[in-house]
């Protein structure tokens, strides 16, 4: 059975897509996508030998080797331009996903949708999408087995009515807290609009981590420690205000 996380990603692949799943590991997502009709054909890309072999085995066993091509290589290197219209990259850090997209820019021409699931560093990824004219059209946050995951769905600016300027327009919540574009990039423009309980759990846990950092900074002799501490302190206060104002 597909995990809740992969099921959420699968649900964002439009029916009949030509899918490329990068960092596919056991190729669970491409197999499920073809099975459900979300994909009519798929490419499973893997850089590491073990996961690549696991993907080959999974695809053979599923009887889908004619429609799912398993390829070994780094990031989008496994694709030819125009081969896929949806790309999924899941289960890695936002920094790694960003560098995969960045190194494969030429392969993104013709791609209609990116479905990305960073384990950490969502803000880095949102910033990359923003500055490369990919509009964040939806985002989700969910919890599974005690871990919290975010799923970001982006489309090329020319293919959607939405614009990043609109998505990330500063807005006031409650009647006094101003969410700047930078904070929207950090917390998520859609997640802050309709936060669920997982969103609150994530930010409460972020607040705890920040409090720990403050404690260790208070014991530090570094000359920059005080500046860093006051920056974190003001972030903590801001996040607390945001959480208090959201519905
Ligand atoms: N995408 C699957 C999922 O979400 O369940 C597997 C996630 S797994 C934690 C990350 C996979 O990405 C690993 O199998 C790893 O080998 C692969 N990977 C890491 N860097 C990669 C890269 N630059 N290109 C292709 N695959 C990569």
UniProtKB/TrEMBL annotation:
It comes from the Bacteria. GO terms for molecular function: tRNA (adenine(22)-N1)-methyltransferase activity. SUPFAM superfamilies: S-adenosyl-L-methionine-dependent methyltransferases. Keywords: Methyltransferase, Transferase. One of its GO terms (biological process) is methylation. PANTHER family: TRNA (ADENINE(22)-N(1))-METHYLTRANSFERASE. This is SAM-dependent methyltransferase. It comes from Paenibacillus solani.
